[in-house]
Each structure stands twice: as structure tokens, then as C-alpha cells.
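Entry 12.
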Amino acid sequence: MGNDGGSIPDRRDLVKSKKKAEQADKANQTRAVWFFCALSKRPLQEPIVSCALGKLYNKDAIIEHLLDKSAYGDAEKICGHIRSLKDIKVLKLTPRSPPPPSDSSADVAKFVCPLTFKEMNGGQPFVYILTCGCVFSQSGLRTVLGSSPSNGNTAAGESSAAEDEQLEICPQCATKFSRSSNIFMINPPLEEEERMYTAMELRRSLEPVKKSKKRKAGADAVADEAAAKKKKASTEGHLPSPAPGLNPKISAASRSLAQSLAVEEAKRKAGMSDAVKSLYRDKNDAPRKETFMTMGTFTRVSRPFAHHIALRR
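Predicted 3D structure (C-alpha cells):
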């Protein structure tokens, strides 16, 4: 080969070596998890929430996912462990002072640790406290507490020791928390995330089982039926109780109404003439003698006028 005016091939041209696997850019991965929502992939905007695995989300994206499970295609893989808003915690983040300009690049952190003022950009591990949601750098919280804080993955054998543990006080809002079970790492490594997932499943297995609505409705029906039977048995074995008395206010009102009607009736009869009064019969008057022709009828002839007609006949 060669001496033909062409190029001389090298070993690199003749022997094809195996291509190296493409590796993702770690800088882009860090930027994606610290500056963008894990579900919607949009820039993080307050209110920002986190789950038991330490992932960061926009709260509106989580609410949209809970209302419509098909809103995001890969939602089941990313946040399938989130069952309701009780499984997330709103974070109390400390904004950077002064805030970054609006035309700055997206790599500029918007939040810092309130203890050490380190930027929350993935360069330093950050943690949040479950009871209050305050966010600190792990080194800053370790300095305040005096030892390395755990990441909320207490094992089953350590649960009794955790109960006897003395509670700590949040250095920012003075809320009490447990060092062994209330501190969660934000965006942890893969191994730490697996341990946090195991601890989350353990906590959920210890939760009391909720009764279904059907079972509750059936129990209520049985209780109502038993109460009805008991009431029926009690009524059969005892005499009926007397009717309750009327309300005193109602009795007084009825008496006043009856008195006013009686006064009105007396005034009306006082203004009547004798001829009109003769048309009406008082209940105290002696019964009239009725014949077959007048039995059950009402005569409007007054007594003096009828006596006058009888004399003329």
C-alpha cells in the first residue's frame, strides 16, 4: 500500500474499536433537578413542594396530576407514590438577597441556606424538616445540631429508640422535630433515594387501615335497625306517655285571641235590632215547636210578625 500518490491508512482507520457508551451530562442533570419541576419540567416557582423521596415540584403541577392522572404521561413513574396532598410538604425557602436579575441565566440559584448562605444549586446537599418545611444546607444544620442529621429513613428496629429521642428545635421557626425521622434530603443520590423509599413504605404499612364507606354504611344500617327494635320493645312494655303540654307562649296567644273574638261578637250583637236578633237563636233558648213542614228548615219570619198574621187569620 502506498506509493500511489494516496494516503497511507493507519490502524485507527482499519480497526474499528467499540464505541463508548454515551454518558449524560452531569451538569445538565444537576440543573434539571434543582431548577425545574420534576413532574412538569417547568422552572420551579413558589409554592414549591417536596415528597418523601426529596424531589422538588411546583404545587400547581401536583394538584393538576391529582385531579387528572393522565395530565402527564410519565407521572406514574415520577410521582406515583404521591396519593394526596398529605404526601407532600410545602417548603419554606430563603430567597437570595439581592435576588438575581431577570435576564440572568437559569443556573443562578434563587434560594440559599439561611444559616450558611450557601446557594441551593446542587453544589451542596440540602435537607428539609418535615414538621415545618424549613430548608437548610446539610452542613449548616449539622453545625447547629452538633451531629450529622439523618434523612428520614428510620429502620423498624430503631423506631422504639426514636420515640425516646429528645426532640430538636428548628433554628429558623422554633418548631420541634425528630432528628431521626423528620429530616429529609432534597434530591438525594440513587442509593439514598432507595433507602428513603423503603422507609416510606414501612411508615405506610404501620398506618391504621381505613374502613371503606360501604362497610361504614352497613354498620350504620345495623345500628339503626337495632335502635328501632329496642325502641319498639320499650313502647310495648310501657304505657304510652301523656302528650306533652303546649308551649306557654302559644297558650297565652290563643287565650288572648279567643277573648278578642268574644269582644267583637258582643259588639256586633249589641248593634243588632230586635228583628235581626229574632233571626238568630241562642243556645240557651227553649227549642221551638216544629211541624212536619218546618222540620229541619230555617224560617226568617220574626215572632211578632208571625203572631200578627195568626191573629188576622
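Annotation: The chain has a mean pLDDT of 78. The two ends are 171 Å apart (CA to CA).
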